[in-house]
UniProtKB/TrEMBL annotation:
The lineage of its organism: Bacteria, Pseudomonadati, Pseudomonadota, Alphaproteobacteria, Acetobacterales. Gene3D superfamilies: Calcium-transporting ATPase, cytoplasmic domain N, Calcium-transporting ATPase, cytoplasmic transduction domain A, HAD superfamily/HAD-like. Mg(2+) binds at D512, D516. The system is composed of three essential subunits: KdpA, KdpB and KdpC. Keywords: ATP-binding, Cell membrane, Ion transport, Magnesium, Membrane, Metal-binding, Nucleotide-binding, Phosphoprotein, Potassium, Potassium transport, Translocase, Transmembrane, Transmembrane helix, Transport. It is a multi-pass membrane protein. This is Potassium-transporting ATPase ATP-binding subunit. GO terms for cellular component: plasma membrane. It is found in: Cell membrane; Membrane. Its EC number is 7.2.2.6.
Length: 677
């Protein structure tokens, strides 16, 4: 999907298809999920029957039938709003479907032997299958790179055509089915069964097939259903009151009154607002797996980010070896190489290539080697071979394992590395400290301004890193986060999120690594980077296809906009209904109580014209507000209280005034054509 590919709000194709679907959505079984519009449909059917009955009995039926037509239109406009919102998602799904292809996969028999493979259709691949992908091939399904480094064009999914590096180990090991290998080769372990790939899920999501009502929507629906029942009782009571005072109400008049009173405007637009919110997110290249996550984003108080790969570019590269007193540089370099021979992370590989370029050392892995792979829990890696053990890792972890205090010179060189924002690793051989490695990383440009924008929205940014305190402090200052947590392991990250949540605050988390996965799952909004690992992408409830952690600003804005739009249109809808009440009531009682004529401030032509005008206004207002529901009310970072006041003024007051103007106008037009006047 391309970012440039914007779908116009009034695309003729979408409108045409939506009009047809609006009719299909009249099916009462599905419509029953929307109580307000469902009641409107029942009432429309009732008035239709009344009209036909009158027609058959040769009684005047014009008024009944006209009211019936407009009540049906009210229902259709509501289903049309939803169909238009869905149609825009479907257009996007079409462009994604084009990316999904049924290629042949090179299925490996033995993942260590790339020479022997058999061809298998991509849809037949299962979780755990090993496939070879070579330059020019389409990646047949989602997976984890277990061998090789290659550049991949992911534009089919992300819209970004600059190739990205995908490699084994590290945090950039996930590949997406339907993307295109530009260079080299990869051995990929398939992680998704057919029909359950990232692309499949994205298609289902943007099509709205997996859309469920969010808790907020359910709560609002209950409120709207409650209001509908209250007004139903009010109208029935009115019948009794009318009988007592000698006024007889016809069914069309009561139906008109009821439909004008119940919150049809918000009832008709509610699901369109929700769908449009998800859609807006997709246009920002973010895929959310639930509407609930989008809403939570609107209320987020704190944002946690990991450092490497999220705040920084994440290419931690070896940039220097610093021996302790009494160890020569070459001996340290050799120990660094030994400790990295079995380390398949980008850090480990960069240490090997640095040693080869700078010191001309390249060693082969000995046969008897026992490899100790890097883990985020131990924060160390290394090798045991020939009776010797080599280790490297986070300085505090290594020193704790050694159980000795380092000399001041070492401490000073570590501090110097850290103050530059680099990551120091301590290196040991047989329990003896030999020196330090400097791993350099770069803060992504422009990130400071973006964090300032988050602060203006009232969101605290907290960097969580497995790195040491000084490096963390340096990067934190450079990136402009509000706070940081250093020397963290996956458990710390999780604990921190739980702590913030227990204070009743909503937490968002951005991350890319497998060690971020528990925290991404725990956070209210977990945004995984598309470049991250498969574990991270599955744990979160959003994936940012651009892998830009500061995208959370847009995500929060879209969430807030969704909540504000729903609030504003609910206010407008209810204010509207109150006004319509005052337009219709005098018309109903005018024959019984001519004194009520004083209430007829709008000077409408006749009671029939007044009632019909109110019903027409009630139907048309839904159509008029569709663009606003889809586009969303503009979000301004002016603080919650000010925003509420502003919206109450615009949508509350506007909602009260609009019907008076609209109904008067419709009444005048009806008068021009001598309809019921
Ligand atoms: N390949 C490696 N071998 C040994 N130690 C490593 C290796 N890679 C990283 N470390 C050390 O382990 C620490 C934790 O690394 P990890 O990638 O888990 O950090 P993190 O928790 O993801 O935080 P962030 O990504 O924000 O830096 C690093 O700061 C570094 O000191
Ligand atoms: K209404
Ligand atoms: Mg990380």
């Amino acid at each position: 999907m391309s970012k440039a590919e914007t779908i116009s709000m009034f695309d003729a194709g979408i409108i045409r298809r939506a009009a047809l679907e609006a009719l299909a959505k009249l099916n009462p079984v599905t419509l029953a999920r929307n109580p307000v519009i469902f009641v409107t449909e029942i009432v429309a059917a009732l008035v239709t029957v009344t009209g036909i009955e009158a027609l058959l009995a040769h009684r005047p039926a014009g008024f009944s039938i006209t009211i019936a037509v407009w009540l049906w239109l009210t229902v259709i406009f509501a289903t049309f709003a939803e169909a238009v919102a869905e149609g825009r998602g479907r257009a996007r799904a079409e462009s994604l479907r084009r990316a999904r292809s049924d290629t042949m996969a090179k299925l490996l028999v033995d993942p260590r032997d790339r020479a022997i493979f058999k061809l298998a259709p991509a849809p037949d691949l299962r979780c755990g299958d090993m496939v070879l992908v070579e330059a020019g091939d389409l990646i047949p399904s989602d997976g984890e790179v277990i061998d090789g480094v290659a550049s991949v064009n992911e534009s089919a999914v992300t819209g970004e055509s600059a190739p990205v590096v995908r490699e084994a180990g590290g945090d950039r090991s996930a590949v997406t089915g339907g993307t295109h290998l530009v260079s080299d080769w990869l051995v990929v372990r398939i992680t998704a069964d057919a029909g359950a790939t990232f692309l499949d899920r994205m298609i289902a999501l943007v099509e709205g097939a997996e859309r469920r009502k969010t808790p907020n929507e359910i709560a609002l629906n209950i409120l709207l259903a409650g209001l509908t029942i209250v007004f139903l009782i009010a109208v029935v009571t009115l019948v009794g009151f009318g009988q007592y005072s000698g006024t007889r109400f016809s069914i069309p008049v009561l139906a008109a009154l009821l439909v004008c009173l119940i919150p049809t405007t918000i009832g008709g637009l509610l699901s369109a607002i929700g769908i449009a919110g998800m859609d807006r997110l997709v246009r920002f290249n973010v895929v959310a797996t639930s509407g609930r996550a989008v809403e939570a984003a609107g209320d987020v108080d704190a944002l946690l980010l990991d450092k490497t790969g999220t705040i920084t570019f994440g290419n931690r590269m070896a940039a220097g070896f610093y021996p302790v007193l009494g160890v020569n540089e070459r001996a340290l370099a050799e120990a660094c190489v030994m400790a990295s021979l079995g380390d398949d992370t980008p850090e480990g590989r960069s240490i090997l290539s640095f040693a080869r370029d700078r010191y001309d050392i390249s060693l082969a892995t000995p046969d008897d080697a026992a490899i100790i792979p890097f883990s985020a829990n131990t924060r160390m890696s290394g090798i045991d071979t020939g009776g010797k053990s080599y280790r490297k890792g986070a300085v505090d972890s290594v020193l704790a394992a050694l159980g000795v205090a380092p000399d001041p010179a070492f401490t000073e060189s570590i501090a110097r590395i850290a103050r530059a924002g680099s990551t120091p690793l301590a290196v040991t051989a047989d329990g003896k400290l030999l020196g330090a490695i400097e791993l350099k990383d770069i803060v992504k440009p422009g990130i400071k301004e973006r964090f300032a924008a988050l602060r203006a929205m009232g969101i605290r940014t907290i960097m969580v890193t497995g790195d040491n305190r000084i490096t963390a402090a340096t990067i934190a200052a450079e990136a402009g986060v509000d706070d940081y947590i250093a020397e963290a392991n996956p458990q710390n990250k999780l604990d921190y999120i739980r702590k913030v949540q227990s204070e009743g605050r909503l937490v968002a988390m951005c991350g890319d690594g497998t060690n971020d996965a528990p925290a991404l799952a725990q956070a209210d909004v977990g945004v995984a980077m598309q470049t991250g690992t498969q574990a991270a992408r599955e744990a979160g409830n959003m994936v940012d296809l651009d892998s830009d952690p500061t995208k959370l600003i847009e995500i929060v804005e879209i969430g807030k906009q969704l909540l504000i739009t729903r609030g504003a249109l609910t206010t407008f809808s209810i204010a509207n209904d109150i006004s319509k009440y005052f337009a219709i009531l005098p018309a109903i009682f005018i024959t019984t109580y001519p004194q009520l004529g004083a209430l007829n401030i709008m000077r409408l032509n006749t009671p029939e014209s007044a009632i019909l005008s109110a019903v027409i206004f009630n139907a048309l207002i839904i159509v008029v507000l569709v663009p606003l529901a889809l586009r969303g009310v503009k979000f301004r970072a002016i603080g919650a209280a000010a925003l509420l006041k502003r919206n109450l003024l615009i949508y509350g007051l506007g909602g009260i005034i609009a019907p008076f103007v609209g109904i008067k106008l419709i009444d005048m037009i009806l008068g021009l054509f001598h309809i019921f006047s």
